[in-house]
Inverse folding.
């Protein structure tokens, strides 16, 4: 049975969810909601982030193996949130990596290589 591999590229503005199969991939996007202002600086944006991370977590429910990538600390915030609120999903996160925003095909190639290398399988080269 083929494992369902999912990669999340995330920053403070959006998350792109990549459902990756051996021959195909599908991408969906989730925009971060506008941050609500609060009187206390320490509370600004907290609710907006929680809503955003909840939406991202919902897209990961069916994934067998997950890789979280992105350029900023938002990827770590998502990972911490998964540990707190969705430990079953957090247990399927195999890695968190820093990366800029490559093109979709570049990211998919990296993710395929990542999962195949972890499984001890030689990566397949799939051209698009």
């Amino acid at each position: 049975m083929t494992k369902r591999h999912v990669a999340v590229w995330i920053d403070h503005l959006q998350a792109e969810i990549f459902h990756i199969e051996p021959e195909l991939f599908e991408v969906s996007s989730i925009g971060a909601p506008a941050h609500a202002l609060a009187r206390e600086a320490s509370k600004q944006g907290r609710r907006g982030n929680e809503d955003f991370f909840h939406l991202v977590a919902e897209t990961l429910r069916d994934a067998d193996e997950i890789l979280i990538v992105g350029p900023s600390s938002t990827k770590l915030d998502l990972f911490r949130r998964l540990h707190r609120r969705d430990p079953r999903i957090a247990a399927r996160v195999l890695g968190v990596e820093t990366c800029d925003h490559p093109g979709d095909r570049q990211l998919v190639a990296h993710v395929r290589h990542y999962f195949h290398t972890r499984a001890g399988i030689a990566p397949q080269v799939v051209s698009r």
